[in-house]
Amino acid sequence: MTIDHICFAVKNLEEGISYWEQVFGYRQMTEIVENTLQKVKVVFLEKSDSLLIKLIEPKEDNLSLVNFVNRGGGFHHVCFKCREINEGVAELKKKGLISLVSPQPGEAFNNHEIAFLLGKYGLNIELIDTSEKAALR
Q1: Phi, psi of 6, rounded to the nearest 5 degrees
Q2: Is residue 22 part of a domain?
Q3: Hey, which of 4, 26, 76, 97 would disulfide with 45, CB 3.0 to 4.6 Å?
Q4: CB burial of residue 94 (10 Å; 0-12, 13-18, 19+)
């Protein structure tokens, strides 16, 4: 497994994009995509020779994430890419991680499946098996 991206939850995607562009030199890689199952709006940012950054903004009915961003937001998860998602989930569960969200389509990944697991120290893990990102600019 390799790291695909790290994710930060923000109250407003436009402000988050501007911050990452001005402060860290990232640029917007994708258009904003709505992930209906996860109840977030998503955008990917890129920078040469660096990990991808994903910013998420909660929809109104995603109360736990709304509460998180209202407290300042910040780091949300690290995403690992594996060879095959069901095998990856099974492998991580054997190693003691807890399944939070079983594989389901992720609009930000052109509907390839995504899964979420909880690791030690409260680490929220997203798992994917694709390099595709939706709505590339």
Answers
A1: -115, 150
A2: yes
A3: 26
A4: exposed
C-beta separation of 17 from 65 below 8 A: no
Q: Helix or strand or coil: residue 134?
A: coil
Type of residue numbered 79 = C
Residue 103 sits in a domain of what CATH number?
3.10.180.10
**Regarding beta strands 40-46 and 112-118, do their DSSP bridges make them parallel or antiparallel, or are they unpaired?**
unpaired
Query: pLDDT by residue (tens digit) across 37-83?
Result: 999 999 999 999 999 999 999 999 999 999 999 999 999 999 999 99
CA geometry: angle at 96 spanning 128 and 72, to 5°? 60
Is the residue at 136 inside a domain? no
b/e code 11-32 from CB counts within 10 Å (16+ = b): eebeebbeebeeeeebebbbeb
Nearest C-alpha neighbor of 54 from the set 79, 73, 22, 18? 79
Residue 50: give the domain boundaries: 2-128
Total domains, the chain: 1
